[in-house]
Every structure is written in C-alpha cells, then in structure tokens.
From TrEMBL:
Ligand binding (substrate): 202-205
Entry GO MF terms: nucleic acid binding; peptide chain release factor N(5)-glutamine methyltransferase activity
Protein name: Release factor glutamine methyltransferase
One Pfam family linked to the record: PrmC_N
Entries under InterPro entries matching the protein: DNA_methylase_N6_adenine_CS, HemK-like, N5-glutamine_MTase, PrmC_N, RF_methyltr_PrmC, SAM-dependent_MTases_sf, Small_mtfrase_dom
Keyword Zinc-finger recorded: no
Similarity-based family: Belongs to the protein N5-glutamine methyltransferase family. PrmC subfamily.
Biological-process GO terms, alphabetical: methylation
Reactions that this protein is recorded to catalyse: L-glutaminyl-[peptide chain release factor] + S-adenosyl-L-methionine = N(5)-methyl-L-glutaminyl-[peptide chain release factor] + S-adenosyl-L-homocysteine + H(+)
Domain Release factor glutamine methyltransferase N-terminal as annotated: residue spans: 18-87
Organism: Hoeflea prorocentri
Length: 299
C-alpha cells in the first residue's frame, strides 16, 4: 500500500484494532513510543481513559471517528507531538489548552508547584493572601495551578507572546480562576509594578547551540523563544535575578526550574544579586530541577 494511503479506506473498527493499527504504523515510522502514542491519541480524541480501553476494547469506533483518528495519526507520523495534535495537555491533574507559542507543560515542572505550595500556605496563614507572579507563563500552568490549589492566592502571568497570554487567559477561564488572574505582556519584570510574595518561573534554559540537535518533535513544534536560554542557557535567570529584588515582598520567595546540570550556576547568579538558596529539589527522575531563594539577611 502506498505511504500516502496507508490509513485510507478503513471503515468501522474496534478500539483495540484501531490502537494496534496505529501502533504498527508508528513503529514503522520509528517513533520511540508507538503503543503509548496510539493509546493517547485514541483516548484523547474519543474522550476515554485507559480503563475504558481495558474494559471495552472490543467496542466499535464509528467510521467517522476512525477517519478522524487516522488523520491525526498521519500528523503524528510527521513528528507532530501527540498533545499538540490534541490541543491540550494535563498538568497537576488539570487540562491546559496549548497554542503555537506555548510550551507543553511537562511532569517535571509539577515538582516546582509541589515545592512552593507549603510556602504559599504559610504566607496565606500569616497575611490572608498570597500574591504570585509567574514569569514567562506560557499556558499559565504553574501560576494557574497555584491559584486552583490556593483560593486565597492572586496571580499575575507575564510573557512576551500575546498568543501565550491569550492561551493563559483561556485556561484561567476554563479553570474558574480568571477573577484572580491577570496578564502582562513584557519581558520578565520589564512591565511589572508592585511586589509579590512568590515569584515562580520555568525560563528557557537550553543552550543556544543545542537547539538544532533536539528531537524533531521538540525543535519542529515548540516555540524556539521558549527553549533558547542563550549561549550558556542562563540568560533568563540573569534577568529574573536582576529584577526580583524590586518586586519581591519582605519574606517572599523565588522558585525557578532549572536544567539538570545548571543549579550551581543559577545559584551563583542569584547570590550575586543578594539572594540565598534555601533549597535544591530533585524531580521524579532524581534530577536537579527546582531552586528556591529568599533575600539574604541584612548584615
């Protein structure tokens, strides 16, 4: 069968048969996780979970749905990521819409949210509220998750992309926190006024020279501006550290995600701007992932 017609002329199928069909094609295309991708596409497009597949895998899928799924599968064969095709990705138990100028929120970043929740709750206990700013917010995954978890929190998301900010606002509306979330278009702290109890960010931290070597799924579909951290991958941290002192409330904290091999360098940058590192946190895979800072005590 010619390549272009591999998924053509297929009628009604069972869920199991459809997943097998996709898995074989994905394996032939040398995708690294053919079975996982097949299940994710079928579940995502049919609004199923894995339990539905286990308990009702022999249930028929309509011809129209089969055609829709096979069209999506062709996109995956061209290396478009599954969640780009679906248009959303789950983060901390909630679904976040994606758009061309946002990164997909990833499980490693959940480490940052878990790390700052206790700090935020302490602020709320002492002051009745917690003011959060999410720098480079993208989908809003970090900041909006904190607002969902903390009803007394108020959030601001900044980004240089209007597309990303519009996506963050849509996610805030879907999650029911839009009344406590506002957006600012600007680079890091450039357009920010006022003080915040918590500064959070997952800045671009990939070295510029590495971008061209990334998997096609990443370099072909993720916005480069959200990946490229400059020559040494640290440009974003320098900007955040330089602006944070003017916008961090007394007793406040800064939490940033880092690459697995960058924590010493990032600590040095913040220490040069009169912050001290309170905690280094690893992700689910045991890699260095999150740093938490506060102001250095006055001498």
């Amino acid at each position: 069968m010619p390549e272009a017609n591999r998924f053509a002329a297929v009628g009604e199928m069972t869920r199991n048969a459809l997943i097998k069909n996709l898995s074989v094609r994905f394996e032939e295309t040398h995708l690294p996780q053919p079975g996982d991708d097949a299940r994710a596409l079928v579940c995502g497009l049919l609004d199923l979970d894995l339990t539905d597949l286990v308990l009702a895998g022999k249930e028929a899928v309509s011809e129209d749905d089969v055609a829709r799924i096979l069209s999506a599968a062709e996109r995956r064969c061209r290396h478009e990521p599954v969640h780009r095709i679906l248009g959303w990705r789950a983060f901390y138990g909630r679904d976040f819409l994606l758009s061309p100028e946002t990164l997909e929120p990833r499980p490693d970043t959940e480490t940052l949210v878990s790390a700052v929740l206790p700090l935020s709750r302490s602020v709320i206990a002492a002051r009745g509220r917690c003011r959060v700013i999410d720098l480079g917010t993208g989908t809003g995954a970090i900041g909006l998750t904190l607002l969902c978890e903390l009803p007394q929190a108020e959030g601001t998301g900044t980004d240089i992309s209007q597309d990303a900010l519009a996506t963050a606002r849509r996610n805030a509306q879907r999650l029911g926190v839009s009344d406590r979330f506002r957006t600012i278009c600007g680079n890091w702290f450039d357009a920010v006024e006022g003080e915040y109890d918590l500064v959070v960010s997952n800045p671009p931290y990939i070295r510029h020279g590495v971008i061209a070597t990334l998997d096609e799924d990443v370099r072909g579909f993720d916005p480069v501006v959200a990946l490229d951290g400059g020559v040494d991958g640290l440009d974003g941290y320098r900007s955040i550290a330089a602006g944070a002192m003017s916008h961090l409330a007394p007793g406040g904290h800064i939490a940033v995600e880092t690459g697995y091999d960058q924590q010493d360098a990032v600590c040095g940058i913040f220490q040069d701007h009169h912050f001290r590192c309170l905690e280094r946190i690893t992700d689910f895979g045991g890699n260095d992932r999150v740093l938490i800072f506060s102001r250095k005590p006055q001498a």
